[in-house]
Design a protein that fits this description.
By secondary structure, the chain is α/β, with parallel strands linked by helices. It has 17 helices and 18 strands. The strands form three sheets. The chain has a six-stranded parallel beta sheet, sandwiched between helices. The protein has a six-stranded parallel beta sheet with strand order 9-8-7-10-11-12. InterPro entries: DDH_dom, DHH_sf, DHHA1_dom, NAD(P)-bd_dom_sf, Oligoribo/pAp-PDE_c-di-AMP_PDE, RCK_N.
């Protein structure tokens, strides 16, 4: 990881140190500043930043040296020392307040980059205080006043995006001084998801529906937005924080709400929070977040936005590349192969829309993999693959090159008898078998009811073409008014 040495710590130097706290060491003569930096968890040494004996106490060879005092004359002295003491490091100097032309010229001769502190500070403050940083500030305000401990719930059987987002919120809560724990119901069954958790040794607490939950002071939802919908929390649970990238079906109530369906993953939103707060993610967290973005955007090819690329670019320098490669290439389970074979054998294709019932399963994530694979078949633009676990039908749908909005289509088809949701090209549903209204609950009845509801909703099987039943939009939910002004995209 790159390291930074800040010599002299004026107004801009301090902001830079806070923004890059975990990889920065500051040397300054300002005793009060040393105390405040250390209180923020930033390494700081009291002494003359141009004194070799003082700087020798720094225990690493910096990649970058920043000359950051407010005094132009002192900056010239420090820059001359730093250029000689760290010849291999990149030298970045601020001019200080009101430098003379001679001082500015000298700094340009000594340093690789020279910047005016007013411009640098303005850019820094706009990034954190402007409209783009508003949500981050609101999130921190809610975290600082929330009752401990905070339970951060991913959706059931969480995918990489949900897992990484939960862990990122736990890390941000720690910065706010709030005890927090990442939680979920169900199982982590998809082979990539298991590899992610096991290889990175991620800490998550799992619960079953029949056990009493501990007493949490506050609750957050990530990668889904309503209690009791795609999680096993009681529907009446009071929620403090919601962060999701799925378009909401109904109003979302919480002290903090950030719903943005114009990005490809919830991990993208959390990467932006971390960057704005100056929190360097651990290699494990960065790897999980990047993998979450990759999975939800299908390697940056599906519903990807500029923000997703920006988040990936920010995370990549922290990522454990070797472990990421191992996570991306896990072994495929026998059941996954069997479900794919069953989906191919049992497919019903009408006007480019495919539906396939695979019977009883134990790994619902395999449905999404089968839906993705069947979408590559010639002449197929939309897929729905569904199977049963106990007394519930789980369905996963995919689309490409179509005006059909799958999220809204599945809601229209199944919301009255179960729950459904997702995005325009990736969605899912879960329906109690007893709610199908069939005369019996045989495989044939389940197949016919689900398939026909889906075909009828998307308008195929007759002479009608698939309809665009839902227009794309950006949803930004803000529950508080302030004066300053899955692979579970199958999340239902």
């Amino acid at each position: 990881m790159a390291s930074r040495l800040v010599l002299g710590c004026g107004s801009v130097g301090r902001q830079l140190a806070v923004a890059e706290s975990s990889r920065t060491h500051v040397v300054t003569e300002d005793e009060h500043r040393v105390e405040t930096l250390r209180a923020d968890g930033i390494a700081a040494t009291l002494g003359d930043p141009a004194d070799p004996a003082t700087v020798a106490a720094v225990s690493f060879e910096p990649d970058t040296v920043v000359v950051g005092s407010d005094d132009p004359a002192q900056n010239c002295t420090i820059a001359a020392f730093a250029a000689d003491a760290f010849p291999e490091a990149r030298l970045f100097a601020f001019t200080g307040q009101e430098p003379t032309d001679a001082q500015r010229e000298r700094l340009h001769r000594l340093a690789d980059d020279v910047h005016d502190p007013a411009d640098a500070l303005s850019s820094f403050m706009l990034d954190r205080v402007g409209d783009d940083g508003l949500q981050t500030r609101r999130l921190m305000r809610v975290l600082r006043t929330a009752e401990p401990p905070l339970a951060v719930f991913a959706h059931d059987n969480p995918d990489p995006d949900a897992i990484a987002s939960a862990l990122a919120l736990v890390r941000i809560a720690e910065r706010a001084g709030l005890e927090a724990e990442a939680c979920y119901f169900g199982d982590i069954s998809h082979q990539e998801n298991r590899a992610l958790v096991n290889l990175l040794d991620l800490e998550l607490q799992t619960f079953s529906s029949d056990e009493a939950l501990p007493e949490f002071g506050s609750v957050a939802l990530v990668d889904h937005s309503r209690p009791g919908i795609n999680d096993q929390l009681p529907p009446e649970t009071d929620i403090d924080i919601v962060v999701d990238h799925h378009p909401p079906r109904a109003p979302v109530e919480a002290s903090f709400v950030d719903l943005r369906s114009n990005v490809g993953s919830t991990s993208t939103l959390f990467a932006d929070y971390l960057r704005r707060l100056g929190i360097d993610p651990t290699p494990e967290l960065a790897t999980a977040l990047l993998f979450g973005i990759q999975v939800d955007t299908d390697d940056f090819s599906r519903e990807v936005a500029e923000e997703d690329f920006d988040a990936a670019a920010y995370l990549v320098s922290f990522v454990d590349a070797a472990k990421l490669e191992r996570i991306e290439s896990p072994s495929v389970s026998v059941e996954t192969v069997e479900i794919l074979a069953s989906a191919i054998s049992n497919r019903d294709v009408r006007d480019g829309v495919l539906a396939s019932y695979v019977g009883a399963i134990s790994d619902r994530d395999a449905l999404a993999q089968a839906a993705d694979q069947l979408l590559t078949m010639d002449g197929v633009s939309t897929t729905l693959v569904f199977g049963t676990i106990d007394d519930t039908v789980f369905a996963s749908a995919r689309a490409r090159g179509s005006e059909l909005d799958l999220g809204e289509a599945l809601r229209e088809a199944f919301d009255q008898i179960g729950s459904a949701g997702g995005h325009a090209d990736m969605a899912g549903a879960q329906i109690p078998v007893g709610g199908l209204g069939a005369e019996d609950e045989t495989d044939t009845a389940i197949r016919d009811v689900i398939s026909e509801r889906f075909f009828e909703t998307v308008g195929v099987g007759t002479n009608t073409a698939p309809a665009a039943v839902y227009a794309k939009d950006t949803h930004l939910g803000l529950a508080e008014a302030l004066p300053d002004h899955d692979d579970n995209d199958d999340a239902a």
